[in-house]
Amino acid sequence: MKAKISLLLACLLTVGLLAGCGGSEAPAAAAPVQTEAPAATTEPAASPAVADASQMTTVEEVVEEGMTPIYAESLVDGSYPIAVDSSSSMFRITEAVLNVENGEMNAVLTLSGTSYSYLYPGTALEAATAEGEGVIEYAENAEGAYTYTLPIPALDAAVPCAAYSKNKELWYDRTLCFRADSLPQGAFADGFFVTAESLGLADGDYTVAVTLSGGSGKASVSSPARLTVKDGTCEAVIIWSSKNYDYMKVDGEQYLPIPNEDTSAFRIPVAFFDRPLAVIADTVAMSQPYEIDYSLLFDSESIEAAP
To answer: What residues form DSSP beta bridges with 305?
Structure first.
């Protein structure tokens, strides 16, 4: 019996030695898990040549409530001085001339300083990655001021315009709004404006909702306003929240106040509806008289016969 046990142990020991010497295959290493390579990002990296928010002054809104884009086909070919609002106090336009020809518009801008080498009709990032294509160089006028000719897709709309600073060597985002209400009425094509004639308003007295924009935002006007139509011509009575206005100007004509005990009131012409009408009101509330730019929008859908 002892001999059989000894023989069995010897066999087991022999089998173990053979396995340790490679007599049987070691288990195969586990295959690595196949994972999908991360997709390459399609967003461009931020360019070091673009100014970030911390390097910019306060950004101002330039498109006012009630504005709708106006395109070249609504204008008569020609050149017109035009007012331009800028989103940055560091990008001040002293003069602008709008050119309209064959369904396209551009504007020649004169800046207050000479700190910008180039403009670009787009964002700062687009300008930084454009590799010079589409960049607008300045030209000096007779007074040495920098001028740039910028394509304009629409008036009364936000127009992106990047500006390259000489000193900072950075592109800055700017937004411009070319104001249609600063153009003479003769700049617009026939049928563009909604008028008393196009509305078929008979002679008589009406009321119309009016919205005031511009100024400091402290002043207001009464709405609805009284509207009179005679021989196709409209006049509205504008009643201000302040008694400190001594005249108004509309399309270059000056209008004096009508008698009113409590506040300033004026009878002014209303050449059209549903578009901002540029007006000037002179206030004597300050240390000296001061003209303030406003706009009035008369809503044609609100017109009702006066009670």
So the answer is: 206
Q: Kindly list the structural domains of the chain, giving each domain's residue range(s) and its CATH number in brackets, ordered by start.
A: 53-186 (2.60.40.1850), 193-305 (2.60.40.1850)
- Map tokens 């030209």 to a residue: 139
d(CA 266, CA 80): 29
For residue 202, list its beta bridge partners.
Answer: none
With beta carbons less than 8 A apart as the criterion, state whether 227 and 209 touch.
no
**Please, which residues bridge with residue 233 across strands?**
230
| Rounded alpha-carbon distances, angstroms, from residue 160 to 9, 63, 104, 126, 204 | 92, 12, 17, 11, 45
Q: Is the CB of residue 135 less than 8 Å from the CB of residue 129?
A: no
CA 181/CA 276 separation, integer angstroms: 6
7, with CB counted inside 10 A (0-12, 13-18, 19+), is exposed
Predicted local confidence at residue 66, as pLDDT:
73
Contacts of 92 (CB under 8 A, 6+ apart): 86, 111, 112, 113
Distance CA 61, CA 39 (A): 38
Per-residue model confidence (pLDDT) at position 42: 47
Per-residue pLDDT tens digits for 105-121: 999 999 999 999 999 99
* Residue 90 φ then ψ, to 5°: -85, -5
Indicate the pTM of the whole model.
Answer: 0.71
